[in-house]
Write a structure and sequence with these properties.
By secondary structure, this protein is α/β, with parallel strands linked by helices. The chain is about 40% helix and about 15% strand. It has 14 helices and twelve strands. Bound molecules: pyridoxal-5'-phosphate (PLP).
């Protein structure tokens, strides 16, 4: 080990870095392909791009890029507060909702704390817990989704936080309102319950109204939302949390002054007004889900019913199928990092992209008769 690493934080040294979906440019370089011919269906992005209103806002405001952003994000804060009917002080913005997961780690995790998560939930929770030296209590999934009653029962004396990913990435499962209420009734008041709802606005089912619980004054519930998915702003990095003011203030302590850049704030303000774009986005994803479900039935492949903009499919050897798809210019996500080596996760693209992906799957996995 190089001597310079002698003083590295041992908890951080243990972390296995997150493996994101492979960028188009990287795959093009490695396989000698034209980037324009590659379709990326690996990171649950919005294939429609950013909304037109968001694009215009960014162009307009680029001129002010030499000025630091408003660290308080006044305009966006007012807008989100009005849209969610909460107080401005109940909102916190992050450089993507990922950054807020890190703030949660700073504030609530450490060597004498544990975090309850579900098996097959978004892997970043575990990485953040590890980074802060927190213990992870992983509760076995039920039908690939969260077993919420078992998660409530899994709370131990040192549990500071439970994270519920809803809809869940990468399985796409959704926990409904009644289930969420029953679960909350069994969680002790000193445990913070985080609902990660990155896919809420595009959910292809009925989302439980968890922000409503915050509005009603539940002291231990916080919800995370993202502009990366429904609003098509993944590249600008912006997300937010809605929670009790006391919890938001606790998280604010680790936020850097200018964590959310100026263009991201401007784009988010504009995107919130673009309801037509949201409608088009939901339509695109619903169609995508139909396309893949139909293909799976044709090919005799098992899949998990998804309420988000991706689908988990059992293909046998996930790494092999991912490689073969990549050779054909389609980037998807192998699921071995989630201990699901037989599966791949495909994000819904535009209809033509989905058709291309399905055609490639048919070549790689011809139906056995
Ligand atoms: C469940 C979940 N939470 C959070 C994130 C991070 O989103 P953001 O781009 O807002 O950081 C993702 C991204 O894929 C996700 O799937």
């Amino acid at each position: 080990m190089p001597v310079v690493l002698k003083w590295m934080n041992p908890e951080v040294a243990k972390v296995r870095p997150y493996e994101p979906g492979r960028p188009i440019e990287t795959v093009a370089r490695e396989l000698g392909l034209d980037p324009a011919t590659i379709c990326k269906l690996a990171s649950n992005e919005n294939p429609l791009g950013p909304s037109r209103r968001a694009r215009l806002a960014v162009r307009r405001n680029l001129e002010h890029a030499h000025l630091y952003p408003d660290g308080y994000a006044f305009e966006l804060r007012e807008k989100v507060a009005a849209a969610q009917n909460v107080k401005p002080g109940q909102i916190l913005f992050g450089n993507g909702s990922n950054e807020i997961i890190e703030f949660l780690g700073h504030a609530f995790l450490g060597p004498e704390r544990s975090l309850v998560v579900s098996q097959y939930a978004f892997v970043v929770y575990k990485l953040v817990a590890q980074m802060f030296g927190g213990r992870v209590i992983e509760v076995p999934a039920k039908e690939m989704g969260h077993n919420l009653s078992a998660m409530a029962r899994a709370v131990e004396h040192d549990t500071s936080m439970i994270i519920v990913c809803n809809p869940n990435n990468p399985t796409g499962t959704l926990a409904g309102e009644a289930q969420v209420h029953r679960f909350l009734d069994h969680v002790p008041a000193n445990v913070l319950v985080v609902f990660d709802e990155a896919y809420a606005e595009i959910c292809l089912g009925r989302m439980p109204d968890t922000i409503g619980l915050v509005r009603e004054g539940r002291p231990n519930v916080i919800c995370l939302r993202s502009f990366s998915k429904a609003y098509g702003l993944a590249g600008l990095r912006i997300g937010y949390a809605v929670g009790p003011e006391s919890v938001i203030q606790a998280l604010e302590r680790s936020r850097q002054p200018f964590n959310v850049n100026r263009l991201a704030q401007d784009a988010a303000v504009a995107a919130l007004d673009d309801q037509a774009f949201l409608t088009r986005t939901r339509r695109t994803f619903r169609r995508g889900r139909d396309q893949y479900e139909e293909a799976c039935r044709e090919l005799g492949l098992e899949f998990v019913r998804s309420y988000a903009n991706f689908i988990l499919i059992k293909v046998g050897d996930g790494a092999h199928v991912t490689r073969e798809l990549m050779k054909r210019g389609v980037i998807v996500r192998p699921m071995a990092p989630y201990q699901l080596p037989e599966y791949i996760r495909i994000s819904f693209g535009l209809p033509d992209e989905n058709t291309r992906c399905v055609a490639a799957l048919k070549e790689i996995l011809p139906r056995k008769s």
